[in-house]
Amino acid sequence: MTFQNLIYEAELGLNLDNTYEKAQLTEVIDEISEEEHAEGRPLLSALVSTKGFKNQGDNFFRLCERLGYGNWRELKKDAEFLEEQRKACREFWQNKDNFSTYL
C-alpha cells in the first residue's frame, strides 16, 4: 500500500505535497510501529511504501534502527530484511486469531 492509498482508504484527508502534513503522517506511522514493536507484533509500516518506489524510504529504516534492528543504512541495503518484515506482518495479520484479537 502506498502512502497515498493509505490516506485515501483511511479517509485522512492529508496532502502529501504539504511537508507538514506529510511529516504528520510519518509521525503517526512511526508511533503505530513503535507500539506494535513494543507489544511483540510486526511493523505495520513495512507494508506502506512511497508511490513509485519498490522499497521503503529512509524514515522506515531509521525507525528500525531506533527499535534495535541494526544500522539503518545496512538495513536499507539488505533486501531480505524488508521482505522478512513484510512476510512477518502478513503472516501475523492473516492469522484469524490475531486478527480478531487485535482489531
Description:
The chain is mostly helical and 103 residues long. 63% of the residues lie in helices and 0% in strands. The chain has 6 helices and no strands. The longest helix has 20 residues, at 19-38. The protein is globular.
Count helical runs: 6
Q: Biggest sheet, open or closed, and with what strands and sense?
A: none
- Rg from alpha-carbon coordinates: 14 Å
Q: Which series of helices and strands comes N to C?
A: HHHHHH
Shape: globular
Number of strands: 0
Beta-strand share of residues: under 5%
* Helix-residue proportion: 55-70%
- Mean pLDDT across every amino acid position: 89
Runs in which pLDDT lies below 50 for 5 or more consecutive residues are none
Terminal Cα separation, in Å? 19 Å
Structural class by sheet pairing and helices: mainly alpha
